UniProtKB/TrEMBL annotation, chain A:
Role, per record: NDH-1 shuttles electrons from NADH, via FMN and iron-sulfur (Fe-S) centers, to quinones in the respiratory chain.
Protein name listed in UniProt: NADH-quinone oxidoreductase subunit
Pfam families: Oxidored_q4
Keywords assigned: Membrane, NAD, Quinone, Transmembrane, Transmembrane helix, Transport
Organism: Actinomadura rubrobrunea
Major enzyme class: translocase
Automatic annotation (TrEMBL), chain B:
Protein name: NADH-quinone oxidoreductase subunit H
GO biological process: aerobic respiration
Alphabetized NCBIfam families for the sequence: PRK06076.1-2
Keywords of the record: Cell membrane, Membrane, NAD, Quinone, Translocase, Transmembrane, Transmembrane helix, Ubiquinone
GO cellular component annotations of the record: plasma membrane
Mode of membrane association: Multi-pass membrane protein
Transmembrane feature ranges: 7-26, 79-97, 109-132, 153-174, 180-199, 228-252, 264-286, 298-320
GO molecular function terms noted in the UniProt entry: NADH dehydrogenase activity; oxidoreductase activity, acting on NAD(P)H, quinone or similar compound as acceptor; quinone binding
Family affiliation: Belongs to the complex I subunit 1 family.
InterPro entries: NADH_UbQ_OxRdtase_su1/FPO
Leader peptide range in chain numbering: none
Assembly and binders: NDH-1 is composed of 14 different subunits. Subunits NuoA, H, J, K, L, M, N constitute the membrane sector of the complex.
PANTHER family: NADH DEHYDROGENASE SUBUNIT 1 (PTHR11432), NADH-UBIQUINONE OXIDOREDUCTASE CHAIN 1 (PTHR11432:SF3)
Length: 123, 321
């Protein structure tokens, strides 16, 4: 258990190191760069003309069905990982293989249903 | 404390690889693209074939003004490049380069960790798209999100196929189990993983989120100076990470025709650079895919193919056991 947390301590140290590298680069940048803001410079860029309408524009999220599908499938996929390490261990074999095909069958049926419903095509 | 010293040296090596390898890939892209298109590419900086071009770029970026648009969400806008780049550094820590502990951290859950952390990098681009308060950036950010959701799934399936074949999630463990006949056995998974990874990195031909002809530069439109450079660096770090993971999972990592123990790290590097060359090659070869074509490729081809690969892996593994 101690080793387990120790290895994640290394990850945490590297995370801090990474944040340090980025912060250091930006700090160096702060000392080297000029700072002369003008109203024109701070305008939202829209190909050179004045911005039209609001900044956060409304748009139709076309892929919200993909998002649902992804969440459903990804939750299933997470369970694959612990199973993948033991499924061929002695004493499992054919049973777990059968279970795998049940799992794949569910996923494939879901995908086929979604495809048939026409939600997989971006309109 | 020899252990502590070892960890410090290894982390320093990881940070050095993170600083140097993306630049090598970037310079290779300059030159390879140029020669494929009948040009010379950078020739001036550093005198010999423009080798110092990216160093010169870095010096230039470091002196540039940092402009945050008035309408932008300042905190998120400024934080986004860090979120985009740091995860790729974290993934490198679990990538083994050679046998017998030539890995910074042999995490038991290495594969799972790598996939999970790699996905975080995409959030940086989504943050940038949202915080810029620019219509084009927002559209780009939405496309990034759509692309992640479509391509993450086949990528995870292809990776778990390798985990099934090896019976472990440790990346070193996977390479140790690897045999040459895994190449044909896992070929479909390898292609699916690599293509899905390219899409997640938004590399051409999957660069719809930054399509310059319609949405300027997508989520990065409002960025300039060093923060823009960090996004670019994140893209090349992403290429290194994707190629390293593909090497370790599907191409046998440090295993070569001879001298695995002595030259293992060299085989790994060689495979990574060959794959990086393929990434550049694909950029030069294929035109950008349309958004609906992108989604169709993921859901209609890659997901079913990866499910097929899972079935094939399972059947053969049980038949061999």
């Amino acid at each position: 258990m101690r080793d387990y947390f120790d290895s994640y301590a290394v990850v945490a140290v590297l995370l801090l190191l990474g944040c340090g590298i980025v912060a250091g680069a930006l700090a160096a940048n702060r000392m080297l760069r000029p700072h002369r803001p003008t109203p024109e410079k701070l305008t939202t860029y829209e190909c050179g003309v004045d911005p039209v309408g609001g900044d956060w524009a409304q748009s139709y999220v076309r892929y919200y069905v993909f998002a649902y599908l992804y969440v459903v499938f990804a939750v299933d996929a997470v369970f694959l990982f612990p199973w993948a390490t033991v499924f061929s261990a002695p004493g499992y074999g054919l049973t777990t293989l059968g279970e795998m095909f049940v799992f794949l069958g569910f996923l494939a049926a879901g995908l086929a249903y979604a495809g048939k419903k026409g939600v997989l095509s971006w309109v | 404390m020899p252990d502590l010293l070892e960890i410090v040296v290894k982390l320093a090596l990881v940070a050095a690889a993170f600083a140097v390898l993306p630049l090598l890939v970037g310079q290779a892209e300059h030159k390879v693209m140029a020669h494929m298109q009948g040009r010379l590419g950078p020739m001036y900086a550093g005198a010999f074939h423009g080798w110092a071009q990216l160093v010169a770029d870095g010096v230039k970026f470091a002196q540039k003004e940092s402009v945050v648009p008035r309408a932008a969400d300042r905190t998120v806008f400024k934080l986004a490049p860090a979120v985009a780049i740091v995860p790729y550094l974290l993934v490198l820590v679990v990538v083994p380069v050679g046998p017998d502990g030539q890995v910074a951290l042999d995490l038991g859950l290495g594969l799972f960790f790598a996939l999970a952390v790699m996905g975080v990098g995409v959030i940086g681009a989504i943050m940038a798209g949202w915080a810029s308060a620019n219509k084009y950036s927002l559209l780009g950010g939405m496309r990034v999100a759509a692309q992640l959701m479509s391509y993450e799934l086949p990528m995870v399936f292809a990776a778990s196929s390798v985990a099934m074949a090896a019976g472990t999630l440790s990346l070193s463990g996977i390479v140790e189990e690897w045999r040459w006949w895994w190449l044909p056995w896992q070929a479909v998974g390898a292609v699916v993983f690599f293509v899905a990874g390219l899409a997640e990195l938004r590399r051409p031909p999957f660069d719809m989120p930054v399509a310059d002809s319609e949405i300027i530069f997508g989520p990065y439109t409002e960025y300039g100076g060093l923060r823009f450079a960090l996004f670019l660096l994140a893209e090349y770090a992403g290429i290194v990470v994707l190629c390293a993971l593909t090497t370790v999972l599907f191409l046998g990592g440090w295993k070569g025709p001879f001298l695995n123990a002595e030259l293992g790290w060299l085989w790994t590097l060689l495979k990574v650079f060959v794959l990086a060359f393929v990434v550049i090659w694909l950029r030069v070869t294929y035109p950008r895919m349309r958004e609906d074509q992108l989604q169709k490729l993921a859901w209609a081809y890659l997901v079913p193919l990866s499910l097929g690969q899972l079935a094939l892996t399972g059947v053969l593994k049980v038949a061999l056991a």
